[in-house]
Design a protein that fits this description.
Layout: E1 2-7, H1 32-41, H2 49-85, E2 103-105, H3 108-116, E3 122-125, E4 135-137, E5 141-144, E6 150-151, E7 157-159, E8 165-174, E9 189-192, E10 194-196, E11 202-204, E12 208-221, E13 224-244, E14 259-269, E15 273-276, E16 281-285, E17 300-304, E18 308-313, E19 318-319, E20 326-328, E21 334-338, E22 343-348, E23 351-352, E24 361-363, E25 369-373, E26 377-382, E27 388-390, E28 396-400, E29 404-409, E30 421-423, E31 429-433, E32 438-443, E33 451-453, E34 458-463, E35 467-472, E36 490-492, E37 504-510, E38 515-520, E39 526-528, E40 533-538, E41 543-548, E42 556-559, E43 563-568, E44 572-577, E45 581-582, E46 586-587, E47 590-593, E48 599-605, E49 608-611, E50 626-627, E51 631-636, E52 642-645, H4 649-658, E53 665-671, E54 676-680, E55 689-696, E56 705-706, E57 712-719, E58 728-733, E59 757-761, E60 773-781, E61 795-796, E62 807-808, E63 819-823, E64 829-834, E65 837-843, E66 849-853, E67 864-870, E68 913-916, E69 921-924, E70 941-944, E71 954-957, E72 965-976, E73 987-991, E74 994-997, E75 1003-1008, E76 1016-1017, ...
Parallel strand pairs: 2-3, 3-5, 4-7, 5-8, 6-8, 7-9, 8-12, 9-13, 12-13, 13-14, 13-15, 14-16, 14-17, 15-18, 16-20, 17-21, 18-22, 19-23, 20-24, 21-25, 22-26, 24-27, 25-28, 26-29, 27-30, 28-31, 29-32, 30-33, 31-34, 32-35, 33-36, 34-37, 35-38, 36-39, 37-40, 38-41, 39-42, 40-43, 41-44, 42-47, ...
Antiparallel strand pairs: 1-78, 10-11, 44-53, 45-46, 48-51, 49-50, 49-53, 51-52, 54-55, 55-56, 55-59, 57-58, 57-60, 60-61, 62-63, 63-66, 64-65, 64-67, 67-68, 69-71, 70-77, 71-76, 72-75, 72-78, 73-74, 73-77
């Protein structure tokens, strides 16, 4: 049986008018004047380059029309005068001259005549030409080709030796293959800057040929642009596409021996932008005769002042001597890229099969020089062919003032001569100078060395903040050192023979932040053959990294005949051999390999050592077996196997224990940089411990490593939110990873082991409280005592603990229930959930109480309801908490759903309160009647009780067996006023067509039987809100406020 007590409560309804807000929008209409103004301010540069070019061409072609008319008028006038003064008529030749002084030609014949006329200084072509003859230029001249497509066929423009300055504007042309059985077209071009006499003697043009405006070669021209072996060619602010697709007779698959330009000097200046989608050869200087007799200087290719040349050749042809983007033969030639935005880039798949030609940049003469400076760039991406090949003695690659050279090789075609950089001669030097200056060689597969020197007496110098980076991924196989077998990062091959000493190879790095970083994934970092010695010198505040992996345990990642390594106060050095090996083939590998005259000297540096025996458990990145503070070290002998001296007793003892000098170590490193507090973990009120992460920088660009065990001491201060508690300071040491199996780093709360952490226990094993502040106030290296300066900021403790579960007034809930009441944490959000769906929400008031409403028709027998509290403290991750608990969301901390949640050091978070909807007989009935205000008259009066318009009379039966029921009412408390006077026999209920007295006896309202679990609606018995009536006689008309209670009772119907 279910009972509800209903009180009749007088109520006043206040009605507030609905305020309406009208939004007014002003529509601003554009006037024609403003539109014009906008059009006038439109930036023309937003049009495509082709459109602008088209407009320019049209404007240029319009001008001659006006000029032609002027000339025609002048001619007409002249003819009339001639007729008046002479009987004989004379033919007048008409020449069109534009307003800017260009004589115009529309045919090849007209162009020929203008070239022959020495009075003509400037020519403009007004129509695209198909040449039917050879053209010759004998004087200084300017020719504007108008950007029109000219077809030269098999014809050329010849320039003889007389002129000194020629300018071609807006050149666009194409040419045909010259024919012949095997025509040699490497010296052929559309423009040829020499003439030959009857006896075959050449008379060379030695001046300057300048190109301006647009510059295009189209439709796969079979010839390059220009052959001027004694001249200077200047591309001044030009832009265009150079579509050159030369072929050889019978070899149509080959790219052809043709150059875009062959000249004594090629200057690409003033923001020129050129793209070559096919041609392998951009620049050549191959004539080695009397080319210097003209008095010219700086032969070679110069890309300057923001100019860019891009070659993109994606055909993987196998050719013998074609595809070199730059190819020079004489000595003392320079390839220069200088200036911000200046770049020479090559992306090619070509495979040059001739070993003597394997180089995208090939310079064969002695004293050749590659110079990249002032933020200029050379970028080479190649499939197999080597990046650079310098053949002549005393040649040099020099990168300075922010210049960059980048070479990426996808492979090498299994050819030892395909290298990122290859130096064939003697006395070569590779120099990287200045902050931001970089040479970066990345060879991504194949066993050839990334950099190959084919002799000694070579110098690699990095200074003043420059960087040399070389990496060779290799082929993954193991090879023997010093036998020219492969996989080296840098190789020095002794090609001197028996009668000549190869000399030494010297690595020098000086100046603050200068860096050499050499890595080989499957071989030695630096390897030599024959009698080549190796010398390494690293100066103060420099970086030197050598990381390799040898094929045998008794070979070093640095190997030479005589090996000398001298390190003077470096910021960082690291030599490591990543070979693992085994008991059967030897564990680990050496770092150094050299003869008995070899030496290692380290001055004023920390030193860390890893024993070779630890290689079997991958000890390379874990804590060292020993590390010292600032000290010196001297070792010499074969393979640096003889310890000489060190002022450090600990270091001396370490070598005494292992013996054999460096032979028992696979890594030696020194880090003279200060550690950093990378992060102080944001604490929570669930924490009894505080964690932070300490790292130590390694290398210029390398990711910092975790601090080792006992390497750094940290002092941490806790400032409590409770001001009655004094701040405390606690010290802790870092913990690294040293264990052979799982490591020994801290594992905070089971999140995963990590090295470099420090752990601070809160005093008295208490947990932090919300608002407590933690801060690293000091840190230092344990050995050496250097103070750490980067300490990270203070952190504030974040609340992550959910409220305690709600306490409910009752857990008896059925389908007819409309509210749930209870208590909980003040200010918390309370959510009523069924199957994780929110049915209703409210906020707990300041007294800790709440009332949750239950929507109609939502509850059924057996439903499980959750009452979830959320403290609305906000998302913890947004406040810096790592790995926040699952009970924290964007609103705050909420009760878990099913099982307790364990987080850090706090007691488990208890699940949300749950209740189950009972499967019983229940109902929904009006809970309030209002009979309004009645004025006493002394006569019998009637008043009807007003109900809420939403009131219903619903019967639920969610029992398994549904039986008949009966609903009754009775007056459980009579109408009584404040003075205690009670009215008798005044309340009536309308049943059927009559009102029946309601008193303390049960009055049947309705009988019925449900067939389903959903409600049965009997709201009609409420008589549209007029089911209850008061009948007041004179005796009951006593002034006062009256209230009464009516009890509804739903019960099983009695059986007969």
């Amino acid at each position: 049986m279910n009972q509800y007590v209903k009180k009749l409560i007088a109520s006043i309804l206040f009605v507030f008018p609905l305020l309406m807000v009208t939004s007014v929008f002003a529509d601003v209409e554009k006037t024609s004047e403003s539109t014009q103004s906008e059009n006038q301010s439109f930036d023309k540069t937003t049009f495509s380059e082709e459109l602008i070019t088209s407009e320019t061409t049209e404007s240029q072609s319009e001008a001659p029309t006006s000029n032609t008319r002027q000339e025609e008028n002048k001619t007409s006038e002249t003819s009339e005068v001639a007729e008046q003064t002479s009987d004989s008529s004379e033919e007048v030749q008409v020449r069109v001259v534009s307003a800017d002084g260009y004589s115009e030609a529309a045919t090849t014949e007209e162009l020929t005549q203008l070239l022959a006329d020495e009075s003509v200084a400037k020519i403009r072509l007004t129509q695209p030409l198909t040449l039917d003859r050879e053209l010759e230029i004998k004087r200084d001249i300017v020719i504007d080709f108008g950007g029109l497509a000219h077809n030269f066929g098999t014809h050329h423009i010849y320039i003889n030796e007389t002129p000194q300055s020629i300018e071609f504007q807006n050149f666009k042309g194409t040419a045909a293959h010259p024919g012949g059985l095997i025509p040699n077209i490497d010296g052929n071009a559309i423009i040829i800057a020499y003439m030959s006499d009857f006896w075959g003697n050449r008379y060379h043009f030695t001046g300057e040929i300048k190109f301006t405006g647009k510059l295009d070669l189209y439709d796969g021209s079979k010839l390059g642009l220009i052959y001027a072996p004694r001249a200077t060619v200047t591309l001044d602010g030009v832009s265009g596409v150079l579509d050159v697709q030369p072929v050889k007779e019978g070899m149509n698959a080959a790219p052809g021996k043709a150059y875009f330009c062959r000249s004594y000097q090629l200057n690409v200046i003033n923001g020129s932008q050129l793209y070559l989608p096919y041609l392998g050869k951009f620049y050549g200087f191959l004539d080695s005769g009397d080319e210097t007799g003209s008095g010219k200087t700086a032969p070679g290719l110069h890309i300057l002042s923001g100019s860019k040349v891009s070659l993109d050749y994606d055909r993987a042809d196998g050719v013998s001597d074609e595809g070199e983007a730059v190819d020079t033969l004489p000595g003392n030639v320079t390839f220069e890229v200088s200036g911000s935005g200046s770049e020479f880039s090559v992306n090619t798949k070509i495979n040059i099969t001739n070993d003597n030609n394997r180089g995208i940049i090939q310079m064969r003469g002695s004293g050749s020089r590659v110079a990249v400076s002032n933020d200029g760039k050379i970028t080479i991406n190649t499939a197999t062919t080597g990046g650079f090949r310098l053949q002549g003695d005393s040649s040099q690659i020099h990168v300075s003032s922010g210049g960059q050279i980048s070479v990426k090789m996808a492979g090498d075609g299994d050819q030892p001569g395909n290298n990122g950089m290859r130096f064939v001669g003697k006395g070569l030097s590779l120099i990287v100078e200045g902050a931001g200056s970089v040479i970066d060689i990345d060879k991504q597969s194949g066993r050839s060395s990334a950099v190959r020197f084919e002799n000694g007496t070579q110098k690699l110098t990095v200074t003043n903040g420059g960087s040399l980076k070389v990496r060779n991924a290799g082929d993954g196989k193991s090879y023997v050192n010093r036998l020219n077998q492969g996989n080296q990062a840098i190789q020095f091959y002794d090609a001197s023979g028996f009668l000549e000493s190869p000399g030494s190879a010297d690595f020098t790095v000086t100046g603050e932040k200068s860096n050499i970083d050499i890595r080989a994934d499957s071989g030695a970092t630096v390897d030599t053959t024959g009698d080549i010695d190796l010398n390494f010198m690293a100066g103060e505040k420099t970086y030197l990294v050598m990381v390799g992996k040898t094929g045998e345990d008794k070979t070093g990642i640095i190997s030479g005949d005589v090996l000398n390594v001298h390190l003077e106060s470096p910021t960082y050095f690291d030599f490591q051999n990543k070979r693992i090996g085994s008991e059967t083939n030897g564990i680990g590998g050496w770092v150094f390999q050299g003869n008995g005259d070899s030496s290692l000297k380290i001055a004023h540096s920390e030193i860390a050592l890893w024993r070779k025996a630890g290689a079997t458990f991958d000890n390379f990145e874990k804590d060292p077996d020993y590390f010292s503070d600032m000290t010196d070290l001297s070792i010499n002998g074969t393979d640096l196997g003889n310890f000489v001296s060190s002022p450090s007793a600990g270091l001396t003892n370490e070598f005494a224990q292992t013996g054999a000098g460096m032979k028992n170590y696979n890594r030696i490193s020194a880090n003279n940089q200060l550690p950093m507090i990378e992060s102080l973990r944001v604490p929570t009120n669930a924490d009894e411990k505080i964690y932070g992460h300490v790292v130590v920088p390694e290398g210029v660009e390398a990711k910092p490593r975790d601090a080792w065990t006992g390497e750094v001491e940290v002092t941490l201060r806790i400032t409590y939110a409770d001001t009655t508690k004094s701040p405390v300071e606690i010290t802790a040491l870092t913990q690294g990873q040293t264990d052979e199996n799982e490591g020994a780093g801290y594992n905070p709360w089971g999140e995963g082991e990590q090295g470099g952490l420090f752990e601070v226990q809160v005093p008295n094993e208490e947990r932090l409280t919300t608002g407590d502040q933690v801060q690293v106030v000091a840190a230092k290296k344990v050995r050496g005592g250097q103070e750490v300066t980067e300490l990270d900021s203070s952190k504030t403790t974040v609340d992550v603990i959910p409220p305690e579960p709600a306490n409910l007034s009752t857990t008896l809930i059925n389908a007819a229930s409309r509210t749930i009441t209870g208590t909980g944490e003040a200010g918390a959000l309370v959510s009523l959930k069924k199957n994780q769906a929110v049915l209703s929400e409210t906020t707990i008031d300041d007294t800790g109480k709440f009332v949750l409403s239950i929507p109609e028709n939502q509850l059924f027998a057996g439903d499980v309801l959750e009452i979830v509290l959320n403290d609305q403290a906000g998302e913890a991750a947004a406040k810096g908490v790592q790995n926040k608990p699952s009970t924290n969301d964007e609103i705050g901390n909420h009760n878990p759903s099913d099982t307790p949640v364990v987080y850090h050091d706090a007691p488990p978070f208890a699940p949300a309160t749950k209740i189950v909807v009972e499967g019983s007989l229940s109902f929904l009935a009006p809970s309030k009647l209002d009979f309004g205000q009645i004025k006493a008259t002394g006569l019998i009066q009637e008043a009807f009780g007003q109900m809420d318009g939403q009131e219903k009379l619903w019967i639920y039966d969610q029992r398994e067996t549904k039986s008949p029921w009966i609903l009754t009412i009775k007056l459980s408390q009579p109408f009584t006023n404040d003075a205690g006077f009670s009215m008798q026999d005044v309340l009536y209920f309308k049943k059927a067509e009559e009102y029946q007295l309601v008193n303390e006896e049960e009055l049947e309202i309705v009988r019925g039987q449900n067939s389903t679990n959903v409600q049965a609606d009997y709201s009609e018995y409420l008589n549209n809100g007029r089911a209850f009536k008061l009948v007041l006689t004179k005796e009951n008309q006593i002034a006062g406020n009256y209230s009464a209670e009516i009890t509804w009772t739903l019960a099983d119907a009695p059986t007969e």
